Amino acid sequence: MIVRVEVGAAGKKLVASNDVAAGMVLTHFRGPIVKRTDVRESDRRYALMIAVDGWLVPENESRWINHSCDANAWIEADTWAVVAQRPLRQGDEVTIDYATVSVDEYRQSPDDYTWDPAWSFDCLCGSALCRGRVDGYVLCGTVKEWNLGPSLEVVSYEGQGRGIRALRTFRKGECIERSHVIVIPKEQWPNIEHTVFYDHTFYWGEDEEDAALSLGFGSLFNHSYTPNAVYQRLFTQSEIHFFALRDIVAGEQITVNYNGAPDDGQPLWFSALP
Ligand SMILES: [Zn+2]
């Protein structure tokens, strides 16, 4: 078994029995699918709404998966598989963010959702990302995007200008940031080359003839020859994804090697961290 049920101070919980890689299926939500009026009172807080009037009442260990605002697993639609979103260590509690609908989405199509006050609770997940009140499984504000926003912050580093600091722990292999880019076609490069944008652009395209300016946090990671992160350019999606090369703890600066390969020691045109 890859997971097991344990009893903690706050009741039952599901924990990983082994180290688990991101993307692995941990368990499935299994149980009868019934109409809302047929959900027993004792099952109400565990029932998952999977259709307009279809409620899955989990009867296996998936029943004991707790909520976290910084969850390490998610539920795959259609199969109801619980998939590790990032690597888990043996003994880690498996958590899901049950609040996945934004208030805006709810307002736009209220008939598609059910607001059940039985699902509202004050969250005690203790995560730096904790939203406090989880209200009827609906998120306040905008749609949650995994790993974005409050996992990172921009800070000033002495002698380096701005850089990116981790606000939480990232496990080796975990995606830290997904940034969209503005692609600068090679014909336009001569107009950009001598501007401040020069230091913030990535080579782009299979032949690296174009350039790209990253949005989001992507332009502000500092360089290091011993980086703790690496980036991958997704040309067709016009995105850059940043991944942890090793475990990164909250408070650490996140750095990449702008020569591309993490161990590429070629000198750069600007001074780098050791
Ligand atoms: Zn929370």
Topology:
Blueprint: E1 3-8, E2 11-16, E3 25-28, E4 33-34, E5 48-51, E6 54-56, E7 66-67, E8 73-75, E9 81-84, E10 95-96, E11 101-102, H1 103-108, E12 121-122, E13 133-134, E14 138-139, E15 152-157, E16 161-166, E17 175-184, H2 189-192, E18 201-204, E19 210-214, E20 222-223, E21 229-234, E22 239-244, E23 253-256
Bound molecules: zinc ion (ZN).
Textual characterization of the structure:
This protein is mainly β and 274 residues long. The protein folds into 2 domains: 3-139, Beta Complex (Beta-clip-like), CATH 2.170.270.10; 152-256, Beta-clip-like (Beta Complex). It has helices at residues 103-108, 189-192; strands at 3-8, 11-16, 25-28, 33-34, 48-51, 54-56, 66-67, 73-75, 81-84, 95-96, 101-102, 121-122, 133-134, 138-139, 152-157, 161-166, 175-184, 201-204, 210-214, 222-223, 229-234, 239-244, 253-256. The strands form 8 sheets. It has a 5-stranded antiparallel beta sheet with strand order 18-19-17-22-21, with no helix packed on it. Strand 8 and strand 9 form a beta hairpin. Bound molecules: zinc ion. Zinc ion binds next to loops. The site of zinc ion (ZN) has 6 residues, from loops.
